[in-house]
Write a structure and sequence with these properties.
Length: about 230
Amino acid sequence: MRIDVVSIFPSYFDGLKLSLLGKAQDAGILELAAHDLRGWTHDRHRTVDDTPYGGGAGMVMKPEPWGLAIDELAAASDRPTIIFPSPAGELFTQKTARELAGLEHLIFGCGRYEGIDERVFEYAASLGQVRLISLGDYVLNGGEVATMAMIEAIGRLIPGVVGNPESLVEESHEDGLLEYPSYTKPSVWRDRQVPDVLLSGNHAVIAAWRREQQFERTRSRRPDLLPADDAEG
Ligand code: 6GU
């Protein structure tokens, strides 16, 4: 998979060279490049923003540098998916991550200030599939941190990135429920005992207990994830 990111703060993405995604890049499974939007400006001040038509607070990102950036990066593949992180977008979920992990080429456009000139989204749709995606109902200062979160969620689903693919299966959200609790040695720590069932060696009973824990936690912490009938109590 190829991932291009456009940002006025490309060094944010240096962090993605670490750990699992760094290894995936070394192995050639993932090709990740962060680009400075100002590289597509042509004035002395490398201007990327201007005041909003119609008035109002803040600044809006100018369309011209975005147009040039998208032209250049989209030309590298057939029909890339162009993602604009935005609190006004569709919600990002594990399902979104799975969909995006199956694609060849993603381009993330990280907006700052009050947003990007709306015509950029329309234009981008002529070069690829455009998605505006939000991490949740709160506001970040720009798309960079949201993009990093999405790349991490997507990247670990690319075949070969996570060493043991089984570890992807038993996680929160993969089966629509929260994860069961985990314990390791010692079996007693500061007077707290690991649940007996986990020391029983009875794998069927352990599996049933874990499933029940998943439902219990989901009911108490995230009832919105359960069908309406199961969410009571
Ligand atoms: Cl994707 N971007 C910004 N700027 N704020 C957000 C967000 C994205 N998701 C939640 N808040």
